[in-house]
Write a structure and sequence with these properties.
- It is a single chain.
- By secondary structure, the chain is mainly beta.
- 13% of the residues lie in helices and 44% in strands.
- It folds into 2 domains: 302 residues, no CATH class; 53 residues, no CATH class.
- It has 4 helices and 16 strands.
- The chain has a 16-stranded mixed beta sheet that branches.
- Helix 2 crosses helix 3 and helix 3 runs antiparallel to helix 4.
- The longest helix is centred in the C-terminal third of the chain and has 17 residues.
- The termini are far apart.
- 46% of the residues are buried.
- It comes from Nonomuraea cavernae.
- This is Fe-S cluster assembly protein SufD.
- Belongs to the iron-sulfur cluster assembly SufBD family.
Length: 374
């Protein structure tokens, strides 16, 4: 498939499976102006040698199928068309794709777990995953990333009529890892999607979660927490494309930064098309800057093409710790360092509590504590 004739929007103008339809980014483009291209290790310009070692393992409960298939499988690319050059490169370079299917009306007793582990940064690797939840089924998927890697991938979540899918992705990479990923959820009539992203590790991580609807009544909630240390670049670029009536979306991302040249980027794009009457949407990003030398960029965007909406809004804040909160705790005998840790944990913990798996929730909270102790 070549370049789409009809632009997605003025915010996202291209979508194509063909790598040649995308020019090599220079850093002057709106989509790339925050990303340090020199740290992508060749993922954006085709210079990365495809010699990396990334192992993907899947653990499925009874009733759920997992298959490794080729690019010619009709389920690949069914929900998502690459929207930038790195995504198109990943689509054209992966060897086998993982397809996970949750059958109609089923509710697996355990989470579906996907483990992505890198074996070094000597070369690049590419991947593709499809999670298909058929009509009236329910599922929980956990995707964990660890190790060292130069890795780009696309993940498609296809949620059928009346189905429900919850996804937790954890970026717990080693300090030298580079990861560029697109996560796209396609919601059918009355489908529900809950996506939670945790980004802690890696030298450069750029994630692009997106949502589209193929029928009315869809409901999407995208939440995330991230913590950047000195020198880290953590970037999240979200897109919610409302194209059908009476659908909902809610976005809430929170981050903390500490250390020299710690840098986070959050871009939140919501499009409400002419046909999407009755849309109810809100997006929020909040950042805590804990030390000098750290920088948080936050850009919420709304593109509304119809006046018949139930609600549409956005908010973004970046700032220091509230001195009054610290003083309140210190006045009750809590030492400064402990008071600081409690405030930050409370700030991020409100979202972390959404993780329904006790073991994973405690693991994330422990990782945040470890970041604060640095």
């Amino acid at each position: 498939m070549g370049l789409n004739e009809k632009p997605l929007s003025t915010l996202h103008e291209k979508a194509s499976y063909d790598l040649d339809d995308f020019e090599v980014p220079t850093g002057r483009e709106e989509a790339w102006r925050f990303t340090p291209l020199s740290r992508l290790r060749g993922l954006h310009d085709g210079k990365a040698e495809v010699t990396g070692q990334v192992l993907v393992q899947v653990h499925t409960p009874a009733g759920v199928t997992a298959e490794w298939v080729g690019r010619e499988d009709p389920r690949i690319g069914q929900a998502y068309v690459p929207a930038d050059r790195v995504s198109a490169q990943a689509y054209n370079a992966f060897e086998k794709a993982l397809v996970v299917t949750v059958p109609k009306e089923s509710v697996p007793a355990e989470p579906i777990r996907v483990e992505v582990r890198g074996g070094g940064v000597d070369g690049a690797s590419y991947g593709h995953i499809v999670v298909k939840v058929e009509a009236l089924a329910e599922a929980l998927v956990v995707i964990e990333h660890q190790g060292s890697a130069i890795y780009a991938d696309n993940i498609e979540f296809v949620v059928g009529d009346g189905a429900s899918l919850k996804v937790v992705t954890l970026q717990d990479w080693a300090d030298d890892a580079v990861h560029v990923s697109h996560h796209h959820a396609q919601l059918a009539r009355d489908a529900t999607f809950r996506g939670f992203t945790v980004t802690l590790g890696g030298d450069l991580v750029r994630l692009s979660p997106s949502v589209s609807y193929t029928g009315p009544g869809g409901d999407a909630d995208l939440s995330g927490v991230y913590f950047a240390d000195a020198g880290q670049h953590l970037e999240h670029r979200l897109l919610v494309d409302h194209s059908h009536p009476n659908c909902k979306s809610n976005v809430d991302y929170r981050g903390a930064l500490q250390g020299e040249d710690a840098h986070t980027v959050w871009i939140g794009d919501v499009i409400i098309r002419v046909a999407a009457e009755g849309t109810d949407t809100y997006e929020l990003n909040r950042n805590l800057i804990l030390t000098d030398g750290a920088r948080a960029d936050s850009v919420p965007n709304l593109e509304i093409l119809t006046g018949e909406v139930a609600g549409a809004g956005h908010a973004s804040t970046s700032g220091r710790l509230d001195d009054e909160h610290i003083f309140y705790l210190q006045a009750r005998g809590i030492p400064f360092d402990e008071a600081r840790r409690l405030v930050i944990r409370g700030f991020l913990g409100q979202l972390i509590e959404k993780i329904q798996i006790d073991e994973l929730r405690e693991r994330v909270l422990s990782a945040v504590e470890a970041e604060l102790a640095r």
